[in-house]
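Sharing in case it's useful to others searching the archive later.

Someone asked me privately for the predicted structure of GON domain-containing protein, so I'm posting the question and my answer publicly. Question first, with the sequence:
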Amino acid sequence: MIDENLIAYCGLYCGDCFAYKGKLADLARDLRKELRQSRFDKTAEFMSTISFFKVFENYGQCYEVLGAMVKFRCKNACNGGGGPPFCKIRKCCQKKGIKGCWECSDFETCEKLDFLKISHGDAHLKNLRRIKKVGVDKFLDGKKYWYSTLK
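And my answer, the predicted structure tokens:
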């Protein structure tokens, strides 16, 4: 279901987000459960003694990372209080009383958006430009970028 409330302040669509959907968190939870039930820590301990499988020395760290991934879930979309509680973008939009960065004339050069480039390229900027140009309804009917290579 396409929902206007799933458009984040930054222009990304929460409906496409792995944290909102919870799929990775569920997979990490299920894998950890299977690893525990299989007592894979014992297998990894043994395998790490074989030179070809030396990487299994890091099994504990892998298990910890999976534990962190289990927590990587949003119960609400960004506009409903989901996402990182420290989000500077959300705070800025709320302070300005706007629905999203597309309503701000400075979004093209806003440094608050820069951290998104690491995991989204310029997808958020493409989305913001499109929302600004065609409006929310037409944006929802069209392509929504999640990752786009920076030029």
